[in-house]
């Protein structure tokens, strides 16, 4: 009986390892609950709402990291997405489905570019996506003319105009299920579902793991490694564009400066979720836990009135601690 | 005289496997001590413990009378214990010279490198095994046999008192193995104690003084080599008799599967050619062996057929033009490649199931969804066919390949090829590092899939292996086909042809 339990625990070790930081954060949150605020449902809903945009980025990042790459451009592509959806729907008056389609295609194009650079021109993913980071940010500023894109703008006839906020924006920032969940959170859940399907249920997932695990062996086994890498980046680009649309909806405008540094949050979430930056390891379940860990950490710190500066420093320190904890535990299993 | 190295009831367990259950072993100065056992018996675990790469759970390692506990490989080297592990460990991206000298080149951190001295030292390492390899070439561009030899050369040149070799000849041809065995003999004469682990029993009988047999992590036999007969050794290893069934061959089909015409590959930066106007036909269901000394062109030929390299000339597959630009394209046409180097044939981070099904995923008739139940069934079937052993009583296909023994990793790679049901299978050292029993199984399986219609191209450094499985053997030298042998093979003439052309070439 005891043996059984031990074996079972051994098998669950990787899951426990990922859950531990989240549990610690939750325990700290319950201890320092700032007069019960931590136990209010609004707090949890807020965490989910605040974490959703990052979470969507983390989905794409999981795919890229599993394939052995890294996508630094997600924050910039998010900004580009936010600016373009605002431009198209508010100022150009495009119907929402068309505008969304165009923005997703733009995200896919950004991803395909980084992916092609990596797969065919053997650029390191770091460099290729760094170039895309700079490029997409520049493009976002260019499109937005360096300003936020809002419902107040100067029309082509030179007159000031104000249009009502497009229904898409209101719809996305709405709440559903009796006001308990934000629509953006549902979008995140859908993205996570798609990522899970890709990684765990579809052939492409196997190819991503194989490519990230051992590029040469995967290639020699007949795995289409280039296609796999490009697709991972394309998905990451599309998810970033989706995140951009959600971000614009939450901010009610398209800000070319938005999403700065989000790539680092996404990477942190994925790594906390047990993925290995050398590739071949990671999964959507883990990333989900990573997303919640970061989200709750932020919440607990802000509930306890830490200043922004202190929060940043503490987040950094806690992330390092969590990752060290995991790699320590990992070495244990390898004997 | 005291033992050069002694193990006293060493035990080691992994999460759910007991790899060693109290092993005693004495290594005398001036003896070659063979370590035998089937795949997963615990040989490499024992050797990793000696090297300090693993800590034993219990028991002790005694070197020259004093218990030691090496914390890292350089500790072992300092005590005069040199270890060559089963998988080559030279840093792939470095030049051969730098890779050989990693960790040996001591001195102040900001001291200048003594280029000449370094080169001479690296050269001495290669000379120790009579290897003439380019020192500036990156390790990853060198054939496996060269890497393996170079690493052995490095171990020899540290002037050890105890030399431990884990399957040193698994990728070496006869000529290279002979050189190695000669060197081992001269080490023995100088009083070095050698622990020699190999699945090639011929070598064991040629060189060993004593044999220790491990089974399931325990010593089941230990005696002088003269007192253990071959059959006895095998049954001690397996715990059962080895049934030998003569390979069953079918009538040769007349359908042509693969045809090569005038295939030529230029060698970069050299006037010699890797392949020189090679023409070859392979019938459906035929097993064709490629025999050559190192660098003779057998590797280059199967790599070309499998889409890994580009060259001039034409190929047809089942009558249609065939010019794969990558392994993926080749796989889509039903041509699969099995690399000799395990790091290129299995993905250590992934589990057995994922590794085994990897090449089959693209097979026709499968959608884009993974059907786990069907996959599990198929993988379990393939694992059973190759008699995979993952450490427990029945094979656990969810286990990470990293923790399997070397021979069992090879079986996973072979199972992957089986499950993909290829039209043409290109094998490089198909039974590298697998034990006698499993080697027989793999040979039988090759015959089985050939009878089912798959054509097989095999490049092997072991002539005996080719003789026992092939319908036809083609001898290559300097990139050219210089001879062809048909069943029944004249073993002597064949070996002679291979060696003779090899000599003529160098
Ligand atoms: N890190 C590990 N974690 C778990 N199990 C392990 C690990 N390393 C080895 N094992 C298990 O220990 C057993 C002995 O393995 P070992 O590598 O010593 O075999 P071996 O005798 O060298 O076999 P081979 O001839 O195939 O090289 C095997 O069952 C293997 O699966
Ligand atoms: Mg071994």
Question: How is this structure best described in words?
Answer:
The complex is a heterodimer of chains A (335) and B (506). Chain A has helices spanning 2-11, 13-31, 41-66, 74-91, 96-121, 125-144, 167-172, 183-201, 203-213, 215-220, 225-251, 262-272, 284-303, 308-333, and strands at residues 152-154, 160-162, 175-176, 181-182. Chain A is mostly helical. Chain A has a domain at 39-259. In chain A, the strands form two sheets. In chain A, strands 1-2 form a two-stranded antiparallel ribbon. Chain B folds into two domains: 5-238, Rossmann fold, CATH 3.40.50; 256-505, 3-Layer(aba) Sandwich (Rossmann fold), CATH 3.40.50. Chain B has 16 helices and 20 strands. In chain B, helix 4 crosses helix 5 (144-157) and helix 12 packs across helix 13. Chain B starts with a strand and ends with a helix. Classes of the chains: A mainly alpha (335), B alpha/beta (506). The complex binds adenosine-5'-triphosphate (ATP) and magnesium ion.
Total domain count of chain B: 2
Mean pLDDT over the residues of chain A = 89
Unreliable stretches of chain A, pLDDT < 50, 5 or more residues?
Answer: none
Largest sheet of chain A: 2 strands, antiparallel
What does the overall shape of chain B look like?
A: globular
**What's the main sheet of chain B like?**
6 strands, mixed
End-to-end C-alpha gap of chain B: 44 Å
What is the average per-residue confidence, as pLDDT of chain B, rounded to a whole number?
Answer: 89
Q: Assembly type of the shown chains?
A: heterodimer
Strand sequence of the main sheet of chain B, in spatial order?
Answer: 6-7-8-3-9-10
Class inferred from helices and paired strands of chain A: mainly alpha
The SSE order of chain A reads: HHHHHHEEHEEHHHHHHH
Backbone structural class of chain B = alpha/beta
Radius of gyration of chain A: 21 Å
Q: How many beta-strand runs of chain B?
A: 20
Give the radius of gyration of chain B: 23 Å
- Provide the helix percentage of chain A: over 70%
Strand residue percentage of chain B: 15-25%
């Amino acid at each position: 009986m005891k043996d059984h339990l031990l074996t079972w625990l051994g098998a669950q070790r990787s899951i426990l390892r990922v859950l531990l930081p989240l549990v610690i954060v939750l325990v700290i949150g319950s201890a320092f609950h700032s007069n019960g605020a931590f136990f209010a449902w609004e707090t949890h809903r807020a965490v989910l709402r605040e974490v959703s945009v990052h979470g969507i980025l983390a989905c794409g990042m999981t795919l890229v990291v599993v394939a052995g790459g890294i996508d630094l451009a997600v924050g910039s592509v998010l900004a580009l997405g936010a600016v373009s959806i605002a431009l198209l729907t508010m100022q150009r008056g495009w119907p929402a489905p068309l505008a969304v389609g165009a923005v997703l295609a733009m995200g896919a194009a950004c991803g395909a570019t980084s992916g092609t650079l990596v797969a065919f021109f053997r650029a390191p993913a770091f460099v290729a996506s760094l170039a895309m980071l700079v490029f997409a940010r520049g493009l976002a500023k260019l499109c937005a003319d360096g300003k936020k894109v809002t419902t107040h703008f100067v029309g082509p006839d030179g007159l000031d105009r104000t249009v009502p906020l497009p229904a898409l924006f209101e719809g996305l920032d709405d709440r559903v299920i009796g006001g308990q969940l934000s629509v953006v959170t549902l979008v995140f859940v859908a993205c996570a579902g798609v990522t899970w399907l890709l990684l765990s249920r579809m052939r492409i997932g196997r190819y991503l793991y194989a490519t990230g695990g051992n590029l040469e062996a995967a290639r020699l086994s007949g795995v289409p490694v280039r296609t796999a890498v490009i697709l991972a980046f394309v998905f990451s680009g599309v998810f970033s564009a989706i995140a951009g649309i959600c971000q614009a909806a939450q901010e009610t405008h398209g800000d070319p400066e938005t999403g700065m540094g989000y790539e680092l949050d996404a990477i942190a979430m994925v790594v906390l979720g047990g993925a290995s930056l050398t590739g071949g390891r990671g999964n959507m379940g883990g990333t989900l836990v990573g997303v919640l860990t970061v989200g709750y950490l932020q919440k607990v710190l802000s509930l306890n009135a830490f200043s922004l500066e202190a929060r940043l420093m503490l987040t950094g320190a806690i992330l390092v601690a969590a990752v060290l904890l995991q790699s320590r535990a990992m070495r244990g299993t390898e004997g | 005289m005291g033992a050069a190295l002694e193990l006293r009831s060493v035990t080691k367990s992994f999460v759910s496997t007991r790899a060693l259950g109290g092993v005693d072993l004495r290594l005398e100065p001036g003896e070659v001590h063979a370590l035998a056992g089937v795949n997963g018996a615990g040989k490499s675990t024992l050797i990793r413990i000696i090297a300090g790469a693993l800590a034993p759970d219990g028991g002790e390692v005694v070197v020259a009378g004093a218990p030691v506990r090496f914390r890292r490989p350089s500790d072992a080297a300092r005590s005069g214990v040199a270890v060559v592990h089963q998988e080559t460990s030279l840093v792939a991206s470095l030049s051969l010279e730098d890779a050989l000298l990693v960790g040996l080149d001591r001195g102040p951190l900001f001291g200048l490198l003594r280029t000449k001295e370094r080169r001479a030292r690296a050269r001495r390492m290669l000379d120790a095994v009579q290897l003439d390899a380019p020192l500036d070439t990156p390790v990853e561009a060198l054939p496996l046999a060269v890497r393996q030899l170079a690493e052995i050369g490095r171990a020899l040149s540290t002037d050890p008192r105890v030399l431990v070799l884990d399957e040193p000849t698994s990728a070496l041809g006869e000529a290279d193995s002979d050189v190695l065995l000669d060197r081992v003999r001269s080490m023995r004469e100088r009083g070095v104690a050698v622990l020699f682990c190999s699945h090639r029993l011929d070598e064991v009988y040629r060189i060993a003084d004593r044999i220790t047999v491990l089974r399931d992590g325990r010593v089941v036999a230990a005696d002088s080599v003269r007192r253990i007969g071959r059959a006895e050794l095998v049954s001690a290893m397996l715990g059962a008799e080895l049934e030998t069934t003569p390979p069953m061959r079918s009538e040769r089909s007349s359908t042509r599967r693969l045809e090569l015409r005038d295939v030529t590959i230029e060698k970069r930066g050299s006037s010699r050619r890797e392949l020189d106007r090679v023409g070859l036909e392979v019938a459906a269901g035929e097993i064709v062996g490629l025999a050559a000394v190192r660098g003779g062109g057998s590797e280059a030929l199967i790599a070309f057929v499998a889409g890994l390299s580009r060259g001039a000339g034409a190929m047809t597959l089942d009558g249609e033009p065939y010019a794969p630009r990558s392994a993926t394209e080749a796989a889509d046409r039903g041509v699969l490649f099995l690399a000799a180097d395990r790091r290129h044939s299995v993905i250590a981070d992934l589990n057995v199931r994922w590794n085994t099904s990897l090449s089959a995923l693209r097979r026709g008739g499968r959608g884009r969804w993974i059907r786990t139940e069907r996959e599990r069934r198929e993988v379990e079937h393939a694992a059973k066919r190759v008699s995979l052993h993952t450490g427990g009583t029945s094979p656990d296909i969810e286990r990470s390949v990293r923790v399997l023994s070397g021979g069992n990793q090879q079986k996973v790679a072979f199972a992957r090829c089986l499950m993909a049901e290829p039209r043409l299978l290109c094998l490089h050292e198909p039974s590298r590092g697998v034990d006698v029993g499993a080697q027989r199984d793999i040979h039988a399986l090759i015959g089985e899939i050939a009878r089912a219609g798959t054509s097989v191209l095999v490049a092997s450094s072991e002539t005996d292996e080719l003789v026992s499985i092939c319908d036809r053997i083609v001898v290559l030298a300097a990139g050219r086909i210089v001879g062809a042998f048909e069943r029944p093979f004249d073993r002597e003439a064949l070996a002679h042809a291979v060696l003779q052309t090899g000599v003529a070439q160098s």
